[in-house]
Structure formats: structure tokens, C-alpha cells
């Protein structure tokens, strides 16, 4: 079986990939994500995921997988907040609003001539959040490590959303399993519970 490499240091992607019982190694790509731009948010997410995958695939054999996730609200990309005040502002912007979560995804398996990238999206509606709730949330969770100051992989965020339409695991973990599992099977790897 080929080596599977996750070209990301994301704890959420690591946790989700581990559920499949497929051995893998983590080699973060460490690229300059802010240097990759595109007016089309979906294309930007895909370009970032591809850049991560291609960087790691240059020096490693096997299957390389990467993703990139960000939220767009009011036509603005919400990156990782610089400080807790910025995190609070982002959460106030999300409160009661409908946003789009973009999850760029790339999969390269040169042995089987598989080279695929795309962006999975999810339309997410947030319920109204109180100022007290936002203040307590940013004090309790590592919001500075998450784009838009939230991570659905942490249970409390599930209480902050009122609906989701689109890629569930793209939204929750930044890794769209509806795309990954069929590709692993094409590579001869069968995930198992």
C-alpha cells in the first residue's frame, strides 16, 4: 500500500483522516497562503490546496492530500484573527448571518495517475449570538488558530449554527470525505470503520 501523506498541520483534518483507519504521515506544506489570490473564492481555495499538495509531492512519494478552508461572510474572507478583539468582531459578523464555507481540496497519486482538485462548499446559517456568549467563547477556545474564529470540529460551534447546506465534513473538518473516500478507493486503499 502506498504511503498517504496529509500536507497539512490541521488538527481537524488529522482527526478526520484517522477515523478511516488508513495509515498516514503528516508533512505540513508551510506555504504563503496569503500570496495566493483570486477574485473567485472557490478557485482561491482550490489553488491554495493544490499549492500545498504539489509542494509536498515534489519531495515525497505516495498519495498527497491537502485542504484549505475559509469562510466568506458579506463578501469578505474571514482569515485567522490577529487577536481576541478581531475574533469577537468576526463572530459578531457571523451572528444571525448566512455565510459560505469554502474547502479547497487536492489529491495527487502519481502512481495511479490521479491528480484532482476542487472546492467543496457549504452554506452555513449562524444563529444570533449574544455579546456575553461571544466573550466567553473567545476566552475558552483557541480562536486565533481558526479562520473566522471558529471550528465546527469543536462541539460548541454546532450550537452556534442553525443550518448547513453542502459539504458536511468540508465544513466541520476542512476535508470533504465525499471526495476523498472515492479517490482512496481508486488508489487501491479501502477505508474502514
Key words describing this protein structure:
193 residues, alpha/beta
Describe this structure in words.
- The protein has helices at 11-19, 41-59, 84-94, 131-140, 155-160, 168-173, 177-186, and strands spanning 4-6, 25-26, 63-73, 76-78, 98-109, 114-126, 161-166.
- It is an alpha/beta fold and 193 residues long.
- Strands 1, 2, 3, 4, 5, 6 and 7 form a seven-stranded mixed β-sheet that branches.
- A hairpin with a 2-residue loop joins strand 3 and strand 4 (76-78).
- Helix 3 (84-94) packs across helix 4 (131-140).
- It is globular, with a radius of gyration of 17 Å.
- The two termini are 18 Å apart.
- The relative contact order is 0.20.
Short description:
The protein is an alpha/beta fold. Helix content is 37%, strand content 26%.
Beta-strand level of the residues, as a percent range? 25-35%
User: What's the count of strands?
Assistant: 7
| Oligomeric description of these chains | single chain
Helix coverage percent: 25-40%
Kindly report how far apart the N and C termini lie.
Answer: 18 Å
Reading the helices and strands in chain order gives EHEHEEHEEHHEHH
Mean pLDDT: 94
**Biggest sheet, in brief?**
7 strands, mixed
Number of helices: 7
**Low-confidence parts:** none
Shape: globular
**Radius of gyration (Å):** 17 Å
Q: Which structural class do the helices and strands define?
A: alpha/beta
Topology:
Layout: E1 4-6, H1 11-19, E2 25-26, H2 41-59, E3 63-73, E4 76-78, H3 84-94, E5 98-109, E6 114-126, H4 131-140, H5 155-160, E7 161-166, H6 168-173, H7 177-186
Parallel strand pairs: 1-2, 1-3
Antiparallel strand pairs: 3-4, 3-5, 5-6, 6-7
Helix pairs in contact: 3-4
